[in-house]
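To whoever is on call:

I kicked off a structure prediction for a single chain this morning and the downstream step that reads the tokens threw a length-mismatch warning. I double-checked the sequence; it's 76 residues and nothing unusual in it as far as I can see. Pasting both halves so you can look.
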Amino acid sequence: MFNVQNGKIVYGQVFSDCLIPSFIEEINLILDTKEISYDKKGIKELSYRLYNKFIEDKVITEKFIPEIEQWLCNAI
């Protein structure tokens, strides 16, 4: 769920039964910065920040991040 004002996500909340809750928590923290734009460029920025946070976890960087990026880009 996103609230968008002037092209920026001003509130976002992702819910999941993901077995890595820190991943979902980090998505929500990044969305709360109000710095992510509601477009493909913004979703790529979200992915970039997630990648840098979880760079040591190949499951997240090679599976979860590309999947969520594709899902969100398709939804925009």
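Update from on-call: the warning came from a stale cache, not from the record. Cleared it. Sanity check on the structure: The longest strand covers residues 8-12.
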